[in-house]
Protein 1
Amino acid sequence: MKVAFIGVGRMGGRMAARLVAAGYEVRVYDPSQAAVDALASKGAIASKSPAEAAQGAEYILLSLPSPKTLRDAVLGESGVLKTATDGSIVVDFSTVDPATTKEIAAIAAKQGIQFVDSPVSGGVAGAENGKLVLMVGCSADLLKKLQPVFEVLAGRVVHCGPTGAGQLTKLSHNLLTAINTVALGEVLTASVKAGANLEVLCEVLTAGLAGSKMLDYLPKTLFTAERPANFAIDLMHKDIKLCLDEFSNLPMPLGQLVLQTYNAARAKGLGSKDSTSVNEIYEELLGVRLSLPSAQ
Ligand code: NAD
């Protein structure tokens, strides 16, 4: 079965590699030659444009950094709609806004092509291990047709509702994740500055109501010496903004504050660091570093 994969960065690259390993013929496109070469060495076929990758593909999959790049890759001069054939299914794993999704889906439908939003959570580890959580926006019938591909990539598939419902769910998920990240950074740096032991703090918080999946995650990211850039501050900033735009007529005071913290991190040149490294703002202000010797 032929599959196209457009955008093979941290997430898309790992997902495409799993599809190659599962026996799919995978044609990949990415403006980064290094990203394409890495997959070609695993058995994927390199393409020169999204249109070339999409030619003859039953499933056309995308994992892109923004609504604009998604628009270009699908609707642009050499976008997938130039060659995709009637009946092929386009699945977007990027995080974008519901309005962009609905607009692209309506244009694709006029060509007989179905467009599905399926943003993901689970990070690079989930992409690598095929354990992503997929938040899918499409009809129940169409979802059934996607099962063969989804079972290679996902540990859990949640049908969120019609087109755009997956993106609405994902933006809500990421705004809460960002709020949790900054809430932990603010309190932990203050507490360590005041003399608390981070290891003891984590033990107690984890046992109480202040525990969270984000706190469990920090020993793999912020608390390590290397601080691996799994999910860039720039991408989280994009998601917070998209979510706040979506809820622009609603009171979102915490979201706005957290956006300002991410703005500050980007203004300091931290945009390509991991989203949890937004807390380096607090670390610098207070002159402390959140690190656990046991973290790796
Ligand atoms: P990334 O920057 O590592 O990868 C994006 C890739 O898209 C890059 O290789 C880039 O060269 C390519 N690209 C840029 N413009 C393109 C275009 N016009 N056509 C084709 N390819 C293009 O980003 P990522 O971390 O893999 O994230 C991809 C998407 O998944 C984003 O929407 C992000 O918000 C979402 N996401 C990421 C994570 C994570 O943990 N990294 C988790 C969940 C969701």
Protein 2
Amino acid sequence: MDTKFLLAPSILACDFSDMGGALSLIEKAGGDMVHIDVMDGHFVPEITIGAPVVAALRKKTKLPFDVHLMVSNPEHFIPMFAEAGADYLTFHYEAAVHVHSLIGQIHAAGMKAGISIVPSTPVSFLTEILDMLDLVLVMTVNPGYGGQKMIYSCLEKIRTLRNLREKSGFKYIISVDGGVNGENFNQVLEFGADMIVSGSAFFNGSLGKSVSSRPASPVCGSFSCKNGSGGGKIE
Ligand code: DX5
Ligand code: ZN
């Protein structure tokens, strides 16, 4: 297989007492973005990382930050994550009413805008806003925890998003999050994903080993990452 893809390791699975070390590891493995899972104890049960932590991490790496908001009322969080240094800010379709407005607010704050959908939400709900998006995050687990098993029936959404993008000239990155590991990532790529998010398999399991020796390849430029670096391929 010779597929280029973007890799966004999720620091949810790292040692929280050594996040700086986790960033170095991601850089060494050729990660393209750092995926940061923000949970509020309301939209999902856990509480994880807030804007002050993101601001502290911002000083430690030049890699783009892909911030995944799993929060209710995402509109409250836009200014603080812009200030903290997020490059991509992704919120959940299910957590917002004024989705169109929020995308505009994220852009106005100087960030790329992403939408995430949980396994029960179809791609068709996004029809009216696909042209505005920089990233669509397909959740392949129910959000809230790392280390869950992939729900394979969600993968078809990747193909749908790919076809829509080809047909209509949309620009969004198709990112996949949840249960991706060394055994199934080729399948995820075959469905047409551009970016793989990986937490436990990157830090503790099979994916880290699979990708650690991959050569760097600058595909990220076409997706407008701020530092223009990144990309990779597995043969
Ligand atoms: C889950 C998070 C994921 C999580 C993925 O709600 O959105 O980003 O870190 O973890 P793994 O790769 O372990 O499924
Ligand atoms: Zn995530």
